[in-house]
Structures are given as structure tokens and as C-alpha cells.
Amino acid sequence: MPHEKLYVDPLLPACLPDLILLEFQVGRQKFDIRFWRDGDQTQFKVLNGDPKAVVKSSFGVHFI
Q1: Spatial CA neighbour of 47 closest among 30, 29, 34, 28
Q2: How does pLDDT run across 2-49, given as a tens digit for each residue?
Q3: 3-state secondary structure at position 39
Q4: Strand 18-26 relative to strand 6-8: parallel, antiparallel, unpaired?
Q5: How confident is the model at residue 64 (pLDDT cuts 50, 70, 90)?
Q6: CA-to-CA separations, 22 to 3, 43, 46, 58, in angstroms, rounded
Q7: b/e burial code for range 6-39 (CB count within 10 A of at least 16 → b)
């Protein structure tokens, strides 16, 4: 995990308005994370694990 962070760019489809990942292990860390749709946006909250280790980051395609 680069810099001891988990980078997420959540996007849930309309047919899946809510999702909870339980005991999601990345490296030595475990997380429980809830994702939910809020209009066209997907939000998330770390339920278990270090919330400072989960960072929202856009993984969109960038052209140089």
C-alpha cells in the first residue's frame, strides 16, 4: 500500500445503492467500509480500521 494509504474512487451503479465491505484486508490493515449513493455521487465511511488511511482520490484518465 503506497504511503500506507488505501486510495478509493467509489462509483456505485444505480442498481446498487449501498455496499459494505467487511474485513477488507490491504497489507497489514483491515477495514470495514460502507459505500452509498447520494444522488449521482458515491460516498463512503470507514466503519472499522484507521479512517486516516483511506483517502478519496480520482483515478480518472488523464491525458498529457
Answers
A1: 34
A2: 578 899 999 999 999 999 999 999 889 999 999 999 999 999 999 999
A3: coil
A4: unpaired
A5: very low
A6: 23, 16, 10, 23
A7: bebeeebeeeeeeeeeeeeeeeeeebebebbbee
